[in-house]
Amino acid sequence: MPSFADTTFTDPSRIRNFCIIAHIDHGKSTLADRMLQLTGVVEDRQMRAQYLDRMDIERERGITIKAQNVRLPWVVREGDAAGDQYVLHLIDTPGHVDFTYEVSRALEACEGAVLLVDAAQGIEAQTLANLYLALDKDLTIIPVLNKIDLPAADPDRYAEEIAHIIGCEPGDVLRVSGKTGVGVSELLDHVVQEIPAPVGDADAPARAMIFDSVYDTYRGVVTYVRVVDGSLKPKEKIQMMSTGATHDLLEVGVVSPEPKATQGLGVGEVGYLITGVKDVRQSKVGDTVTSARNGASEPLTGYREPRPMVYSGLYPVDGSDYPDLRDALDKLQLNDAALTWVPETSVALGFGFRCGFLGLLHMEITRERLEREFGLDLISTAPNVVYRVEMEDGTEHVVTNPSYWPEGKTRNVFEPIVKCTIISPSEFIGSIMELCQSRRGELGGMDYLSETRVELRYTMPMAEIIFDFFDSLKSRTRGYASLDYEESGEQASALVKVDILLQGEAVDAFSAIVHKDAAGAYGNKMTTKLRELIPRQQFEVPIQAAIGSKIIARENIRAIRKDVLAKCYGGDISRKRKLLEKQKEGKKRMKTIGRVEVPQEAFVAALSSDAASDKPKK
């Protein structure tokens, strides 16, 4: 293996920075595996499937959650540059819509992107979304059809589909198989020919963009950077331009695919920095790193801050784990810049955190990572979105939790909306339209990508798609439809707060913000569920759902009754009636002074996002 990959300050003209973008399960990680083998950075005996996916959850679910970068040495095999050596920086990105922020950050560190499409499935919604992200950054796009070895593959048909969207010729679409390795070396040669070399001033003050970071228990914060100008060398002082904090560089290196220390990083190179800092807030994704002495005056353009789409409460089952949960969220936020959190308190669940996520899968993965990586036992409440409420007196309130709903008369309630792109076989158009209209969706347009595939564009309230919309879409289209969504502002809607009353007293934890038309269904669902979960008391307990002072649903938990007539073997009816009246008076008195004790298990079961009716999409 040539030592070219370890050379200090590689000539920028010999560097190619690119990423692989695609829909989920179109073979990005498998193609990256073949590139690792072909370039020789991983020996065959050490090879394993999904080599760059480091987390157990990624390997179990077969999905990429974190973008991973790797440095590959490559000797061109064909063409005018045959025999020349190059350094390829590859970033393998996630495909799921919830991890689009990872993709957008990866694109900032690249000059080109390999657009991967499954030759058996064709273009999906997230393929288009990632393509538009790359085009916005003016990246060079290399269209590639993967899985051409499958019996169901139809490369000619899908090559025409890709050519129609990108504006190239069907013959320009490369054909590879990530599984067998066919066409991968030609793809790497194509990357060298088509993707431009990075541009930067080697003599200018150092400027490097932080595009990712992780927390290592032994070494502290490990920061991944892309050098734009100048160079970074170990043992020198660096400065974070957003905070002004200075640190000593203990180690500089590259990932190939394991970390390797080098003598420094030059223009266009991608690598890691270790400063030994343990404070996770010192290394912010999107920040610019420069030299502490004679550093740059202007920082690089950072990333657009992600806006949380879904909010959910995370609470430790054991209240004493609260400080551990706070530390765990701090460390996880370093690794996942899209996660946001603020402390909150619940009457039912104690101290916890209100966390913002980009979607339901993001929420599910975050909770699972907290439980696995930090040994916590957590309860997550049912997810909801953020509302903006205008009151009659002109004041405004931002509501992230139903318990924060303001008292008084509301003038307008605004809810977030999203633009959905659904790509499906044309035979399912009718059932998709019916589903979207039932979720308050408005059709924005429809295009045929080919004779059999159609793209539908809808504007829908975010609250309508965060629960089971994706599952309903899949079941109505036999799994063939794909969904992508992006935020699109807000709209005024007829929303109300539904309170759940136990014996006339509202229980904050069970409140929800729903559309006026769906309030009755929510009230019936919650009252029925709580009637099954709350144990019977010595007196009858009414469970009511109310909008303000108007009751919209009711269930009763029947009282535990002692058989006071058991000792009466016949005799006059007046004696029996007297005993029943006495019992009735006692129950009435008990009801006025009795309190309904709701067990913790009932709160967990009613609030938990894992409840069957609220099961998040996988």
Automatic annotation (TrEMBL):
Its EC number is 3.6.5.n1. It is a peripheral membrane protein. SUPFAM superfamilies: EF-G C-terminal domain-like (SSF54980), P-loop containing nucleoside triphosphate hydrolases (SSF52540), Translation proteins (SSF50447). It is an enzyme of class 3 (hydrolase). Pfam families: EFG_C (PF00679), GTP_EFTU (PF00009), GTP_EFTU_D2 (PF03144), LepA_C (PF06421). GO terms for biological process: positive regulation of translation. It catalyses: GTP + H2O = GDP + phosphate + H(+). InterPro entries: EF-4, EFG_III/V, EFG_V-like, EFTu-like_2, G_TR_CS, LepA_C_sf, LepA_CTD, LepA_IV. Its main location: membrane. HAMAP family: LepA (MF_00071). Belongs to the GTP-binding elongation factor family. LepA subfamily. Required for accurate and efficient protein synthesis under certain stress conditions. May act as a fidelity factor of the translation reaction, by catalyzing a one-codon backward translocation of tRNAs on improperly translocated ribosomes. Back-translocation proceeds from a post-translocation (POST) complex to a pre-translocation (PRE) complex, thus giving elongation factor G a second chance to translocate the tRNAs correctly. Binds to ribosomes in a GTP-dependent manner. This is Elongation factor 4. The gene is lepA.
